[in-house]
Design goal:
Blueprint: E1 15-18, E2 46-49, E3 52-55, H1 135-138, E4 169-172, H2 201-209, E5 240-243, E6 248-251, E7 253-258, E8 260-268, E9 275-282, H3 286-289, H4 299-302, E10 306-308, E11 327-329, E12 331-336, E13 343-345, E14 352-354, E15 359-373, E16 379-392, E17 396-407, E18 431-439, E19 442-449, E20 458-462, E21 468-473, E22 480-489, H5 490-494, H6 496-511, E23 523-529, E24 542-547, E25 562-576, E26 583-597, E27 604-617, H7 646-669
Parallel strand pairs: 12-16, 15-17, 24-26, 25-27
Antiparallel strand pairs: 1-4, 2-3, 5-6, 5-10, 7-8, 9-17, 10-11, 12-13, 14-15, 15-16, 18-19, 18-23, 20-21, 22-27, 23-24, 25-26
Length: 670
């Protein structure tokens, strides 16, 4: 009996990998080689081709691919070690192909798959395994699409033997372990079960019941809004308006973007639900500009809107008999495009076409509905604010429509929080200015903070032309990077006055009204609230903004043409409170300024301003503290251990002797 040992330390593994796109057509030729089944690194170096020995070396060898009939290495040989195995192929003979009648096509072998061969009969670009690609086609390839490696990772040879490399493969020799699988007795375990196609309904039902399947949820349409006079306005209930012409009651609708930005659909205005919509339009002609039903005419949005103050006041049987307080005519306020020169009007301005500037004047650029409410008592006041201005023809513009609900009571003392007590994600960072005063002989510090969120810490943003126009609030735990540009003239960089004005403009764009603390130039006068519910009289709850470079005032002390080009805010926050309801607070903020040289080779150039903000969690783990062990003070009576004391033992002994002495005489007498 022979014992075949399939364990060796050094073996030669042959793997086929794409090497270069240059591939020659493989030809089967007579070949013989002396190759051990388990060869070392030195034994795999020489290969005999047509009687000539070719040294492989460590580089590429011009070989031809020969396919083996068996996937695993043959083990029928009586000796596996130090045995020469000769593989030969029959000589080529000239044959003539016989036409074959069309039959059922046979599926190709899974090992011959080529995932990048998507089109049959045509060479697919960079698909090196495509048999339709000729040698000249492959020369145009820039790379080869990767193909998955087949076979088990433990096999000695994953690929079929490659004795000559006249193809796109390269021979790689490696030593990855002590053991490998020379022959797999059950290779089917590495393949999926090839199921038969289903031809009956019963088979389909049996197959689908074996696996869980996804089912689409049943989508129910929202109920139709019905006007009810039995309940007051509540959150989410439609705001109803009255049409004097038809005597009907309907909901107030505003344009809404749906799939596109052209606002082809509408949305119902609902009680206590603030909403904002932006529609993209373009004026193409004079007629559209002066059309009374055009979206450029403010009358379409604001005129003759009668709001129902409360459904409880409506007599649905006879609407005309409803009390006077049940209906309210919406006021109309017209403002310029920049928000100035606002005045109440009875009729909206009609858009007119200006031939000189080729623009539409008094076009409705924005609309804002403001409803003042008093909870369930209903709407106390309604206002339609129009923003009008000139609009060039043949240019797209964004028409913004807002719906805002406000309390009827005085909101001057109202302050928008960003959390209670800690910050909430997505809420703006609250900033304020440090104020110092002396009350008597005591120095007092407080923080002046605005109730307008737009005055808080923000980043500049770009308009559609890429220029810095407007700003965006810094929101808690939201990392943001913005970039915008400003126009710079060549004369401004050449003169000291123009350069100083440019520095002030850049500082205004980046920091707004924030200024440098003169007592400490490495800080700003503005502070950031550590909590979402700040207190102006607690300066310790406010975080200073540190600068990475010294500045004296809002003019950065750097010579021209170097200009301030951006800032990076790094915000440190930490969790506090119980694990069940953790809160977040800001513990530090650092501003890193950046600058660059601005050179204008032409009359005008554009300078880029880049700003960013990054939040970093620096929370510390909870510290386990254990209370000291209590001191146990036990007080026992003095005679608690008397039965076990030496004195007690002596008394007991005397009593026993007395009893014994009395007992023995008694017995003798008896």
């Amino acid at each position: 009996m022979r014992l075949v040992l399939c364990c060796f330390i050094t073996f030669c593994a042959v793997r086929a990998e794409p090497a270069t796109p240059e591939v020659s057509t493989a030809q089967e030729v007579g070949i013989s080689t002396s190759l051990h089944p388990f060869c070392g690194s030195d034994e795999c170096s020489n290969v005999t081709v047509d009687g000539e020995t070719v040294a492989e070396g460590s580089g590429y060898v011009d070989f031809t691919t020969i396919k083996s009939e068996n996937e695993s290495f043959p083990t029928e040989s009586n000796s596996l070690v130090n045995t020469t195995t000769t593989l030969t192929t029959p000589a080529l003979t000239t044959t003539t192909e016989i036409p074959v009648l069309p039959t059922t096509a046979k599926r190709p072998n899974i090992e011959d798959s080529c995932s990048c061969d998507e089109v049959r009969g045509l060479c697919n670009i960079n698909c090196c395994c495509d048999v339709d690609c000729s040698e000249s086609d492959r020369k145009a390839f820039s790379h080869c699409h990767p193909e998955p490696e087949g076979g088990h990772s433990g096999l000695c040879y994953k690929q079929q033997f490659i004795y000559s490399n006249n193809t796109r493969y390269k021979i790689i020799q490696h030593e990855k372990g002590m053991f490998c699988i020379a022959r797999d007795n059950f290779p089917e375990r590495l393949f999926f079960s090839n199921q038969k196609t289903i031809h009956t309904t019963a088979s389909f039902n049996r197959a689908i019941q074996r696996k869980q399947q996804f089912t689409w949820p049943q989508i129910s349409l929202p109920p139709t809004d019905v006007f009810e006079t039995t309940s007051p306005y509540k959150s989410g209930v439609p705001v109803w308006i009255y049409n004097n012409a038809t005597g009907s009651i309907r909901t107030l609708e505003i344009p809404l973007t749906s799939g596109t930005v052209s606002c082809k659909s509408s949305r119902t205005v609902r009680y206590l639900d603030d909403f904002e919509s932006e529609c993209l339009h373009r004026t193409i002609s004079k007629e559209e500009c002066e059309d009374s039903q055009s979206i450029l005419n403010g009358k379409v949005f604001c005129e003759n809107i009668v709001v129902i103050t409360s459904p409880l006041l409506i007599n649905q049987t006879k609407i005309e008999e409803s009390p006077d307080g049940a209906f309210m005519l919406m006021r109309m306020v017209e403002c310029r495009a920049n928000g100035s020169d606002c005045k109440e009007v009875r009729n909206a301005s009609n858009p007119t076409f200006d031939t000189e500037s080729n623009s539409c004047r008094n076009a409705a650029l924005g609309v804002q509905y403001v409803f003042y409410h008093n909870s369930t008592s209903g709407i106390t006041e309604a206002e339609c604010q129009l923003s009008v201005g000139p609009l060039p023809l043949s240019k797209y513009f964004a028409q913004r429509i807002n719906v805002v609900f406000k309390w009827a009571k005085n909101e001057s003392e109202a302050f928008p929080r960003s959390g209670l007590p800690g910050y909430l994600q997505g809420k703006p960072l609250i900033s304020g200015n440090l104020l110092t005063g002396i009350a008597g002989s005591v120095k007092r510090e407080s923080v002046n903070m605005s109730s307008v969120t737009g005055d808080w810490l923000s980043l500049p943003v770009a308009n559609k032309n890429g220029l810095c126009s407007g700003k965006k609030n810094v929101l808690f735990k939201e990392n943001v990077r913005t970039q915008c540009g400003i126009h710079v003239s060549r004369e401004a960089l050449l003169s000291q006055e123009g350069c100083s004005l440019l520095k002030e403009e850049v500082w205004k764009i980046i920091f707004g009204d924030m200024k440098v603390n003169r007592s400490d130039p490495r800080q700003l006068l503005s502070l950031i609230s550590a909590f979402g519910d700040p207190s102006p009289d607690a300066p310790d709850d406010w975080v200073p903004i540190f600068l990475d470079r010294s500045v004296v005032d809002q003019q950065v002390q750097i010579p021209c043409p170097t200009q301030l080009s951006g800032v990076q805010y790094r915000v440190l926050y930490s969790y506090f409170g119980p694990f069940t309801n953790p809160q977040m607070k800001i513990i530090g903020l650092y501003a890193t300024l950046s600058s660059k040289d601005v050179v204008c080779k032409v009359d005008g150039c554009q300078m880029k301003i880049v700003t960013s903000v990054n939040f970093l969690d620096v929370s510390q783990e909870a510290v386990n503290k254990f209370a000291k062990a209590p001191v146990v003070k036990i007080r026992l009576p003095p005679d608690f251990f008397y039965p076990f004391s030496s004195q007690s033992c002596q008394n007991i002994s005397n009593m026993l002797l007395m009893l014994i002495a009395l007992a023995f005489p008694a017995r003798s007498w008896l």
